[in-house]
Design brief:
Nucleotidyltransferase, domain 5; five-stranded mixed sheet; about 200 residues; alpha/beta; 2 domains
C-alpha cells in the first residue's frame, strides 16, 4: 500500500510517501509566497527520489484546511487533478487533526492564527475532538478549554502568554492514523476554510 500525503495549508510545504507501513520519503520546506510555484515540482521530486511512478500511488491523503486560503486551494487543486487523471480517490484530514496527531500528549489544543485575535482551533483527547474545529476568538476558546486542562498547545504560530509546542509534522503518525478513513471521489473533495474569505465577508456586508 503506497500513500502520498500532502499539506500546503500553511507556509510550510509538507509531503510524504508511505510504503508498506512506514514513511520512506518526506519533504518539509518553508515556502511563504512561493507555494504556487514550488509545490508541484517538490511533489514531483519526492516521487522521483523514491523511484515511484505517479500511477503507483494507491491513496492520496490531503490536508484540506483550515489555514491559508491560497495554500489550501493549491494543495486541493493538485490533489484533485492528480486523483482525477489517475483515477484515484482522496482521503482528507484537517490541518488541526494533523497537528494534534503529531504531539505525544493525551490532550492537545491545536491553534492556527487567523489574525485580529481569532484562531482556527480544536481540542483533542487521543485524537478525538473534545472541542470541535472552528473559527474562534482566542480568549473565548481558551476559556472553553479550561475545563479540559491540562493540555498541550501546538501551533506554528506564537501567542502572547501561551506556552506553545512548535508544530513538527510526524508523518508516520498522521498517515497511520488518518489513511484508514474512507476515501471519496476527487469531485466531492472540498476545502475546509472554517470562515469566509475577506472578499466574501465584504460582499455580504
Amino acid at each position: 500500500m503506497t500513500v502520498l500525503y500532502l499539506d500546503t495549508s500553511s507556509s510550510l510545504f509538507c509531503a510524504a510517501l508511505y510504503q508498506d507501513g512506514k514513511v520512506t520519503q518526506q519533504i518539509r520546506k518553508k515556502l511563504e509566497k512561493e507555494m504556487s510555484k514550488e509545490a508541484l515540482p517538490l511533489l514531483k521530486k519526492l516521487l522521483e527520489d523514491a523511484k515511484v511512478a505517479p500511477q503507483k500511488v494507491d491513496q492520496l491523503l490531503v490536508c484540506n484546511g483550515p489555514g491559508s486560503f491560497t495554500g489550501i486551494r493549491i494543495g486541493m487543486t493538485i490533489a484533485k487533478v492528480y486523483a482525477w487523471a489517475l483515477q484515484k480517490e482522496i482521503t482528507m484530514v484537517s490541518s488541526l487533526e494533523a497537528m494534534a496527531a503529531s504531539i505525544s500528549s493525551e490532550r492537545v489544543l491545536s491553534l492556527i492564527d487567523a489574525r485580529r485575535g481569532y484562531v482556527y482551533g480544536a481540542l483533542y483527547e487521543e485524537n478525538k475532538p473534545l472541542i470541535q474545529e472552528g473559527y474562534y476568538l482566542l480568549t473565548e476558546l481558551l476559556e472553553q478549554a479550561k475545563s479540559y486542562a491540562p493540555y498541550q498547545i501546538v501551533s506554528q504560530d506564537s501567542f502572547d502568554a501561551l506556552t506553545v509546542v512548535p508544530y513538527q509534522p510526524d508523518f508516520q503518525k498522521i498517515i497511520t492514523l488518518y489513511a484508514k478513513r474512507e476515501s471519496i471521489s476527487p469531485h466531492l473533495a472540498n476545502p475546509c476554510y472554517l470562515k469566509k474569505t475577506e472578499a466574501e465577508e465584504k460582499q455580504n456586508g
